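The passage that follows is intended for readers who have already worked through the single-chain material. We present the inputs for a multi-component assembly, then the predicted structure in tokenized form, and finally a short commentary. You are encouraged to pause after the input and sketch how you expect the pieces to fit together before reading on.
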Amino acid sequence: MKGSVRVLSVFIRVHLWLMLLFCGLAPVHAQLVIDVTTSAGRQIPIAIMPFAKEDMAPQNVTPVVGSNLARTGLFRIANTTGLSKLPTAPSEINFLDWSSRGMEALVIGAIEPLPDGRYSVSFRLFDVAKQMQTAGMSYTVAATQLRATAHKISDEIYEKLLGERGVFSTKIAYVLKRGNTFELQVADADGFNPQAVLKSVEPIRSPKWSPDGTKLAYVSFENRKSSVFVQDLVTGQRRQVANFKGDNYAPNWSPDGKTLVVALSKDAISQIYTLPATGGEATRVTQSSSIDTNATFNGDGSEIIFVSDRSGGPQLYSVPVGGGTVKRLTFEGSYNVNPRMSPDGKLVAFIAREEGRLRVATLELATGQVTVLTDGPLDDSPSFSPNGRTILYESKAGGRGTLGAVSADGRVKQKLSSAAGDVREPAWGPYGTSGAR
Amino acid sequence: MNKLLVSVGMAMVLGACSSTQQPAQVADSKPAPVQQATAPTQPPTTAPTTTQQPTGVRVDPLKDRNSPLSNRVIYFDYDKDAVKPEFQALVQAHAKYLSENRTRKIRLEGHADERGSREYNMALGQRRSDAVRKAVSVLGVGNERVETVSFGEDKPKSNGHDEAAWAQNRRVEIVYDGE
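Having made your guess, compare it with the prediction:
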């Protein structure tokens, strides 16, 4: 568990007109509230027994695991309220009874306080039909790690039952606007534990995770214009990597984390450039008299997918990283923007304007197939979960940003709302470096 | 591109005959009497220079509320980056000032309304500031004295969510160095 909760700090700079403040743990009430609005397809019926002795621990684990699994839309969680004699040990499980209730999987667990103040958390996953344990794990953690442990357990259950990695222990970053203040926040994937890593009275935009999950690239207007920064979330050190004449915006990382692709207007109207992630000389990639912007690397880092209005309205194009022949990728509609690569490199999520509504869509690179996933009217900034199953996006309503999530197949939709303010431009972080297999 | 050259040509024609900015200047000059009324109670050194027009003293026209140079905002139509005819006189006044004051530099700050994608609205704001840059460039102001930047939709002038607010937000602001 080590490293999953880190002290985030920012390097403090003081300007007369600029407020950049270190901010520690944000108040808990600022967290996002998640509401699964649609769910479809086959769901695995699972019974999660309340973990033994968890009421004596400062953080319950069972409800976190239950809501994590329910949120995916891929599980049907049994309601155990009112049922007597719920098992907490393997010998207490009546498999035939749970089978008759239609359950396929069952979880038991316990939280034991240890003399040193820490807790031992354990769980066991059973296949009800086979009456057999299929997964089990025990963790020794500090009280502050109990919620993160619940995410770990959720990941284990998810992977065992679905055969793909869960994303419950990952992080999301987004911009929160409160009044006239912009905050760059990092939170758990379920919206809990939001932490501000940067605050400014000037706009903050476009946060993007480094592939190793230790840094964020983003745009700050603290120079009274757009400049690109990279901030190390472990050390808190931040570095201005692009502050050329004109606009410096729309950063994105290469798959190896060494290079950033950005849009700069230093030589012409917005063009695509690459530059070292540590800053330095910018290399021009596109050569046009049109707007070229919003670039993302493809899966293997050999090409850049970007937006250009060279044919009139903005459309998606690709170009080799070293420059060269530009290929048009989208042909439907007059406004296709904000491409983001799926982790497997097969899909591009983007925003398509149809009938005046901005919607999340995907483009399958191999076939050119476009699938519209959301209804809009003002959806923006799509971002894939690291397992590629879900796309997180900004959904503007009443001039205020909220977050939405849609499964990449369009079948499961969620709305995430924050009481704290206007939530924008979510970016789903990669699998963490800590606790990796 | 062709459209732009045509509108710049129109700017010259319009600028030569009459200014469509007159009503705005009248409105802008209103606060002056108020400041003058309070002036006697203030030490002479802090009296606002904007209200003073003594003969023989050269007042910086950038700080003169009665000067056309006090108009700094150019508004645009939805999804458009063409400088409309009614703003050509404003553009021309600034180009003239820059031609006469060769050490001054400007920054053109482009903005978009909240409709459209946040990221792509940066490009739209840039197109607008670039359209104004081209307009002053045609009038003889070198690109080395003009920086174009965009704020996208993130610095609205009006916080409303209707056409009246959006019209206020689709704009380019002219900012002089040192301001």
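Commentary: Chain B touches chain A at residues 107, 109, 114-120, 122-123, 126-127, 130, 147-152, 154-155, 159, 161 (CB under 8 Å). Residues 1-53 of chain B have pLDDT under 50 and may be disordered. How closely did your sketch match?
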